[in-house]
Amino acid sequence: MLSYATRRVLMLIPVLFGMSLIVFSIIRLIPGDPAQTILGTKATQEAIQSLHHALGLDKPWFVQYVSYLKDLLTGDFGTSIRTNAPISQEIWPHLAATMELSFVAMIIAIFFGINAGIISAWKQNSIFDFTAMVIALIGVSMPVFWLGLLEQWGFSLELHWLPSIGRDNIRNAVNPITHFFLIDTLLQGRFDQFWVVIKHLILPSVALATIPMAIIARMTRSSMLEVMRSDYIRTARAKGQRMFWIVYKHSLKNAFIPILTVIGLQTGLLLGGAILTETIFGWPGIGRYVYNAIQYRDYPVIQSGILVIAFFFVMINLIVDILYAVFDPRIKYR
Amino acid sequence: MTDPVLDVKGLKTYFFTDDGQVPAVDGIDFHVKEGEILGIVGESGCGKSVTSLSVMGLLPSPPGKVVDGKILYNGEDITYASESRMRQIRGNDIAMIFQEPMTSLNPVFTIGSQLIEAIRIHRKCSKKQARARAIDLLKLVGLPRADELVDEFPHQLSGGMRQRVMIAMAMACDPKVLIADEPTTALDVTIQAQILDLMLKLNRETKTAIIIITHDLGVVAQMCQRLVVMYAGKVVEEGTVKDIYNNPKHPYTKGLIQSVPDMREKKQRLYSIKGSVPKPGSIKKGCQFAPRCEYVMTDCLEQEPQLTGNEHLVRCLLYRE
Predict the structure, then answer these.
(1) Is residue B87, in this structure, part of any structural domain at all?
(2) Chain B residues with CB inside 8 Å of A240's CB?
């Protein structure tokens, strides 16, 4: 198991190397020029050329790539063209914001998705099953921006229950330590702020959770239905076991592999794909950070942002692969 | 004469499908006494397994439903008993072994945890005590290195070993009745003999009544005292194994016995009953076996025969009084 995990982590190196090359080339293929964006449309040709020189953009692309790679290996993500700040310092608060939001969203999606799927399978063709699956279908089809706007209109504008934007109260901002605000407020014993942070998290995390929740519910239902028809479930019933334990113990553990796959993929997608939610709810996450960088043609930031997202995507899939063996003893890694 | 532990009277189990109702079991009677071994034989699709699932209350429902008859356990009518009462009975009073040992154990839990579960559902005891009992049970069914086996998973065991585990699990709470639904069909011949010996041994030691459901007349001859022959959801012949083997009355039973290969004869072709089991409910009147019967008479197509006789019962117009 350990040697398998080590090998998988080592395989990360070529993956990230390939990723960096692809991102590096694609960015340079997009029309647009960082110097032009910075200096404006009325800039003279000389000014643009001297800025190109200052940014190193006048060198051949492979020279640029090698120097970028050299910096990367020493842990230097480079400097943002737009803000002139080191990216390694700038990126963490954004990454932490997205991770916190995705984490809460996935907890919601997993809890409700799995339970809805289980009960649908258990009470197949019942009213609950029908209702849950229709809601799941709507959930899959609902565009996040539309759901986000509806939430803001209903719970912020009309009912005034929850804040519509941001991570915390600007006039009473959280003093960041880890940049995970849920942790930071608790570390500082600021339970009033902790509550504020939770209130800020609810709307965006529910919006973000909807699609994964619906996908998890549908996957859980179909996987459970298959397992519950199997011989060993009949054996468990013949022992006199309660239906609750048959469903939640005997069936769920067997049905969990495909559910786990979906959870892994969806978590990976949330990390990079939360741009819409982050934009609607003014969430200072990595998606928005990279999106803004693309608009400014801030090459180093785009490269680093995408690389970090890719890294987490691969790591989550590695964790999922290792978890397979925990749920199914027949899976062995060598 | 002792009272039967399990007494099934006029059981009818129908399946309600989109194409109408299918009488899978159409009024069958049988009983089994303490320490007795009863065989139920018949071809595939004659309602043997549906009978056992009806007794256990494990019919897939919908579409299956017991529509008539009585299932008496120690005199208690459990035909329509509540789910919670059935849970007390299952495993504790009436246990069951299934046909497919390869798939009947949960692949993601250890042998031990599945045995411990079976024990602790019905017996109040600590996990440690249950584990000790689990190891004893594994030894009882003749499994080697029982104390290692408890921590192994089903996929690490062979089919015969798994069926032994299934038997151990069924015997966990000393049931009064053990229903074995084709317990040896999926196993090879040498293992079959071992499993049957084991069941005989348990029957003698624990006085558990056993109902063996099979299509293998060899198994019946080796194990059972009494025999029920089923055809198309009905009992066609019932009696002691000796009587039925020496003097089979129903043409179907005769056919079944004739189709068993005999080592002393050198036949080129084995006897077979022509045709196949009709779809339940497709024959509306007369004897269900008439279309395949060698002795068919005109009355057979019109009149439905009743089960007649005293000790050796048969459902055939050839024997009407």
Answers:
(1) no
(2) 86-92, 121-122
Of B86, B90, B107, the CB nearest to A330: B107
Say what the pLDDT of residue A4 is: 81
What tokens does B151 get?
Answer: 């921590």
CA dist., res. A14 & res. A4, Å (int):
17
Query: What fold does the segment set A95-327 form as a domain?
Result: MetI-like fold (1.10.3720)
Picking from A231, A238, A243, the nearest residue to B103 by CB comes out as A231
Asked whether residue B148 carries a pLDDT value surpassing 70, the answer given is: yes
Query: Chain B residue closest to A239 (CA)?
Result: B91
Cβ count near B224 (within 10 Å): 22
Are B56 and A238 inside 8 Å of each other by CB?
yes
The number of distinct structural domains making up chain B is 2
Determine which of A182-191, B113-122, B265-274 has the lowest per-residue pLDDT on average.
B265-274
Whether B197 maps to a domain, the answer reads yes
Give the pair of three-digit tokens for residue B107. 């692949």
- What is the arithmetic mean of pLDDT over A276-305? 88
Domain that holds residue B241: 33-57+178-319
> What CA–CA distance (Å, rounded) separates B96 from B91?
7
- The answer on pLDDT for B93 being more than 70 is yes
Instruction: Report domain extents, chain A.
Output: 2-73, 95-327
Residue A214 is predicted with a pLDDT of 94
CB contact, 8 Å: B106 with chain A? yes
CB atoms within 10 A of CB B51: 28
Between chains, do A250 and B121 touch, taking CB under 8 Å as contact? no
Q: Decide if B87 contacts A239 (C-beta within 8 A).
A: no
Which of A230, A239, A260 to mutate: most B Cβ within 10 Å?
Answer: A239
Instruction: Give A174-231 pLDDT, tens digit per residue.
Output: 888 888 888 888 888 888 889 889 999 999 999 999 999 999 999 999 999 999 989 9
Residue where a domain stops, chosen among B121, B155, B174: B174
Kindly state the average pLDDT of the residues B288-305. Answer: 84
Tokens of B289: 């076996």
pLDDT of residue B267: 67
| Chain B residue whose CA is closest to A326 | B108
